[in-house]
Structures are given as structure tokens and as C-alpha cells.
Amino acid sequence: MSERVAILAHEKFPDRSKTANGLLRYGDREVVAVLDRDRAGDGVADHLPGVGDAPIVGSFADVPGAVDRLVVGIAPIGGGFDESWRPDVRAAIEAGCDVSAGLHYFLSEDEEFAALAAEHGVDLHDVRRPHDELTVSGARAADVDAAVVLTVGTDCSVGKMTATMELAAAAEDAGVDARVVPTGQTGIMIEGWGNPIDRVVSDFTAGAVEEMVLEVGDDHDLLIVEGQGSIVHPAYSAVTCGILHGAMPDRLVLCHEVGREAVHGYESFDLPPVADYVDLYESLAAPVSGADVVAGALNTSGVGSDADAEAAVDGFSRTLDAPATDPVRFDAGEIVGAIR
Fold first, then answer.
1. Domain coordinates of the chain in residue numbers?
2. What is the pLDDT of residues 184-193, one digit of tens each?
3. Residue 65 burial by CB count (10 A; 0-12/13-18/19+): exposed, middle or buried?
């Protein structure tokens, strides 16, 4: 029987709840409710089409039926814990429910939560806690048998994780033995393994990616490494570079969101023209792998009609001089040939 989970996404669902959305789209757990006090009374499918429906409730006390785990489905800038979530986390623990979070704030180090968890015999799973044996890269990722593809972005929160999952599924549908290499909290929750790269000591970032590539790279034909951040992001560029150099990819897929003109959360920084990213990423990859941008994944969720979305994809493709698609709205299979 699959684990029954409730997902906390207060005041952020679905526009700013990447982890919640990823688990709803790609996870194998039974989601029985989403907690969002602003949308209580609605259904998940009212706001996130194409996923299994579940009620949206105002608090953990309103979750219907027994629950095995509460998942914090929000990862705000900086990964902090919002004190308005405390009553729901407390209630979940007191109900004997395990709690998972992908925050930089570790629940297991919160005195109240740790004491309650010990009292009620529940697990506090801090997904962003890296293991202790990480080390520097040995520059060996290129030695694996699998082809390695990395999703890269024009910004954070443009759809790299989504593109990664959709591309892996489309490759499997095409008969390719593909494996996702998760690098962020949402991907790790979905896949059940991985290193949280944005929590790793800087010297060990590339090594943490390399470790995963070496672990599975000889057992599959294709690895799709989940990218993070953006090379131009004033806060997150370091993790972007570390993933690229650690993965030593053979090919790159550039992800972008229609209408995004400024860095998310740092709106005083304009995004460069999309075409500039091709040169930036290929230049960054050149010393380690010589990977080219071979395809694009465009997030058109903010575009009303399919016709307008298709026009946007066509323009994106022409800019990249490579095939492109919106892997959710249309078909990720359209670019599987390019990444193979």
C-alpha cells in the first residue's frame, strides 16, 4: 500500500509550491490533502490540472482520514521555516505522522519538534541534509557508459525539474533505459535518492554530482541530471556551475519560462537575451565536456491558448537553433531524439 501523505503549501499553492506540484505530478505516494489556508474548500485539480484530485484544507486537523506523512511542499528563498507552519507540523507529529521537509532549516534540530518526535515515535526527515562522506570531484563522470544530459535554466523556477522528469518519462516511452539524477529536494523526494546539491560544502558540489553519476551511470543508457538555479543568478550561480562541472554532461537542455524578464526574487536584475545563454552554458561546459545545447524546454503555463503557446515554442526553437517543446503542455517526446 502506498504511503498516504498530506502536503503543506500555505498561501503558495500552486504558483509558488514547486515541491508540492512535483510530488502531485510525479510522486508515487497517495496525496490525501493539500494544506493551503487561502484556498481551503477547493480541490487540487481546480488549480493544477492533469494531476490526481485531492481536497485543499486549511489545517492539518482538517485532513481527511489517516495520514502517514506530512510533507512541507514549499521551499522559499533561503529555505527558512515560516512560524505560521508550526501548528500544523506540531499537530502532525502529535498524530503520529512522520514529517519531511526540503528546507535549509532542519526540523530535526528544532527543539520542540525533536522532543515531540521522540515522544510520539515519528521520523523527521530533513531532505536537504547531505551525507557525511562527500568529497571533491575526481573528474570521472565522463567515464560512465550512459549518455549524460543536464537541464539548465535561464533562471530559477523555470521548470528544470519538471523538464527532467518529463524527458526521462518520454525517453522510457521511446524504449530508452533512462534514469533521473536528482539534485534538489523535490527530485529527491520523488526519486527516493540523491544529493541535495545546494546544501553541500562548496568544494564538494561537483563531487556530490559526480558521485551520483558514477553510482548509476553504467546501469542505464541515459542519465538526465536535474539542474538548479542559473549561471546568471546572483545567488544561485555557484550551484549551477558545480552541477555542470560535476556531471560533465554530453548534452544540455535549456529551460525557460515565457514572459520571464527579470531574475525571480531579484527583480532589479534583468535576464539576458535567451540566445546569450547558449553561449554562456556552452562556454562553461567547454573545459570539462564540450556539451552543446541540443534542445529547449519552454514553460508556457502563463500562456492562455495552445496556439499562442505553440507560437512561443516555435520562437524559442528558432532562437536556440534547436528543437523545443513545452514538455507538460505538449509532448516531451518531440525532443527525445535530440537528447539521445
1. 4-126, 141-339
2. 999 999 999 9
3. exposed
Q: Are 4-126 and 141-339 the same fold in CATH? A: yes
What is the CB-side half-sphere exposure of residue 328 using CA atoms within 13 A?
24
Spacing of C-alpha 337 from chain mean position: 23
Which class does domain 141-339 fall in? alpha beta
Helices (H), the chain: 18-26, 44-47, 86-94, 111-120, 160-173, 185-191, 205-216, 237-247, 274-285, 306-320, 336-339
What does the block give as the cell for 4? 498516504
3-class state of residue 241 by DSSP: helix
Question: Model pTM greater than 0.90?
Answer: yes
**Cβ neighbours of 7 (radius 10 Å):** 29
Distance CA 7, CA 116 (A): 20
For residue 62, count CB atoms less than 10 angstroms from its CB and return exposed for 0-12, middle for 13-18, buried for 19 or more.
Answer: middle
Looking at residue 55, what DSSP letter applies?
A: B
Q: pLDDT digit string (tens) for 323-336?
A: 999 999 999 998 99
CA distance 115 to 106: 14
pLDDT single digits (tens) 157-168: 999 999 999 999
Pairing of strands 30-35, 56-57: parallel
Q: Are strands 266-270 and 147-153 parallel, antiparallel or unpaired?
A: unpaired
Among 119, 128, 149, which Cα is nearest to 19's?
128
- Helical axes 306-320 vs 274-285, angle rounded to 10°: 50
Give backbone dihedrals phi and psi of 262, rounded to 5 degrees, phi first: -130, 160
Architecture of domain 4-126: 3-Layer(aba) Sandwich (3.40)
